[in-house]
Amino acid sequence: MAFLFRLCRVVLLAALLSLPTAMAAAAPEIMPLEDVRAGMQGIAKTVVFGTQIEEFGVEVLGIMKDKGPSGDLILVRTFGNVIDRTGGIAQGMSGSPVYIDGKLVGAIAYGWTFTDHKIGMVTPIADMLKLWDMPTPKIRVPEEEINLEDQTESKAGQEPGEQKPEDEPANKDADKEPAEGMDGTATPLMAAGFGDRAMALLTEKLKPYKLMPYAVGEAPADTRFGPLEPGSAVGVQLVRGDVSLGAMGTVTYTEGNKVLAFGHPFLKKGGTGYFLTSAYVFTTVTGMENSFKVGAIGPAVGIIDQDRGAGVAGQLDKFPSVVPLRVNIVDRALGTSRDASIQVVQDEQLFPVLAAASVLSVIEKTADRIGAGTAKITFEISARNMPGDTFKRENMFYSPANIGEAAISELYELMALLAGNQFRPVDIIDVQVEATVDPERRTATIMEAHPVVASAKPGDKIEIAVSLKPFRGETVTVKVPFTVPLDQQPGPLTLEVRGGGMIPLLELLARRQKGDEELLQTYGKLKTKTFDDMIKELAERDRNNDIVVEVLSGEAGEFLGGLGTAKAPPTKLEPIPKPNAAPGQTQTPLRSGKSVDAVKRPDSKSALSTEYIIDSDTQVIVNIEKGDPIAEGKSVLYEWKVKSDDSQQSL
């Protein structure tokens, strides 16, 4: 009998231990807001060091009617040893569950700046529980494709999808802000692995979102993060991998695999997709304006899929859609290189700056300096709903002050264009960046230029000899090929020879005549009519290390529109060469009764890539002799449209 008794006790104990944590601990009873009275006292739970949950006292002072973003708030005074150590309610305590007579009342959520930090506001738990009934966004990446052991890289072959915040439900309080003077307690961002300039970029770009990054380290290696429970430190993470960025708060309530935290919004974006993580607290920094916890974002344990007035909500063991960012930086001065793998959550407004700051940080860490230098950068972005699906760009940059910021300028420009375009949502799938950084100034000035031949005919291929003076180097000469436009009239042809990063002369002249604003409006209308045009314009932009040779004639408006000096098309019914035709190959003669209009003319320019950033310009003149390109069998690069009553036909 004794043996059977011991056996039954072992079986019963094993069965209890096998129950999920949320089931093993009974859910607390809820105290309705109407039962809360001034003078009631209770406790709240939070973490102020490490991962250990501690308690502090709470006394109800009254009910603040309709003062919160989701409705009423409970005014409380906090007290006890924890509050004495932290100097009052600190940012990072948001979400701390408040219990009266063992019943869950709500979460510490707000305080006032420059006042008694022991006074705060509690968001009622009933408002927070509604978050679990809100529509959740679609998740692009199945949770099994997130590598929890090494979350610095997503698995290859993941299928792109959509993650769009659902429409906000009808709620008269949805857009309300806290009462004047109240301060949300989760705005500091814990930033790990970012350099000084990257931190400055984050500070500037995230200021409109009321987010302030603070440089922190990682949690101690021996830290043991237990399961999330009421009072646990919790993180809402935007970037993870070789750099990390996220906000800290406190868990309010859990039920099964569902989690409630913060008691106030993070960014108030409704249906979202952020990492839900554990967190570690180093200490609490006290100040006159407010106090805040300093800590480290821990392992990812799930997804935050709701970010609304009453707090944030998430689920364990499901993970958000991410954009993998793979970076390789080489520093020539130190002879070192660094590879970084980073995951950035999909957020149209935040992604460009988060990704750009992450790349800048890797450049900073690799070069181990801030200052002048030259960088050669190549980036490739794969995206869904983007023209061509893949965009690849290579360029060189020089900066006398901060080469890292200069190097990421075009990368940031493209990511902002994709994320903020007005035409259609773009699902960025993958970003790869490679850069070589050199402390030397690799720039060159155009000293002079001249055509190798003094005269040429339409369609002839000629060379322009360009003398370059590298910075503190010996003069070198390069030859840039150029094809004379087929429709060029006899006489002098003026060519501009410039660096690819220089503003074209005609554009400068137009700016003086029209002013920058009017010119940019005209330029924008011509160059960015469609999303495809916007992407194409960036892809075809001259590189800073190119020597560009182009026709300098015609009106500024024609130049900006890419029409060059196109003349009227032929009006006689003569054989017309096919586009890009081989010598002697022609199109069928046009029938009478039809007219021909030139609808596109190729750019009258050419470019040669160099190892220097070209920082000046000059002009040369070529004498154009009379010639017959058709008789000489030269290929024509025009597109023509034939008009006939109600129809058009491309040739």
Keywords for this entry:
single chain; 651 residues; alpha+beta; 6-stranded antiparallel barrel; 6-stranded antiparallel β-barrel; 17% helix; disordered N terminus; disordered C terminus
Describe this structure as you would to a colleague:
The protein is elongated, with a radius of gyration of 33 Å. Strand 5 (103-112) and strand 6 form a beta hairpin. The strands form 6 sheets. Strands 1-2-3-6-5-4 form a 6-stranded antiparallel beta barrel. Residues 1-24, 141-175, 178-186, 555-602 and 636-651 have low confidence and may be disordered. Helix 6 (351-367) runs antiparallel to helix 8 (409-420) and helix 9 (505-514) packs across helix 10. Among the domains are: 323-438, no CATH class; 443-650, no CATH class. The longest helix is centred in the middle third of the chain and has 17 residues, at 351-367. By secondary structure, the protein is α+β, with helices and mostly antiparallel strands. The protein is built from 12 helices and 34 strands.
Secondary structure blueprint with pairings:
Blueprint (H helix, E strand, L loop, with lengths): L1 H16 L3 H4 L16 E7 L5 E16 L2 E9 L1 H6 L10 E4 L2 E10 L6 E6 H5 L52 E3 L3 E5 L3 H11 L5 E4 L17 E9 L2 E12 L2 E4 L8 E16 L6 E17 L2 E6 L5 E10 L4 E10 L5 H17 L5 E12 L5 E10 L3 H5 L1 H12 L6 E12 L4 E9 L3 E2 L4 E10 L5 E8 L7 E9 L5 H10 L1 H12 L3 H9 L6 E6 L4 H5 L15 E2 L8 E2 L7 E6 L4 E5 L3 E2 L2 E8 L14 E6 L2 E4 L1
Parallel strand pairs: 8-9, 16-20, 21-31, 22-32
Antiparallel strand pairs: 1-2, 1-4, 2-3, 3-6, 4-5, 5-6, 5-7, 8-11, 10-11, 10-13, 10-17, 11-12, 12-15, 13-14, 14-15, 16-17, 18-19, 18-20, 21-23, 23-24, 25-26, 25-32, 26-30, 27-28, 29-33, 33-34
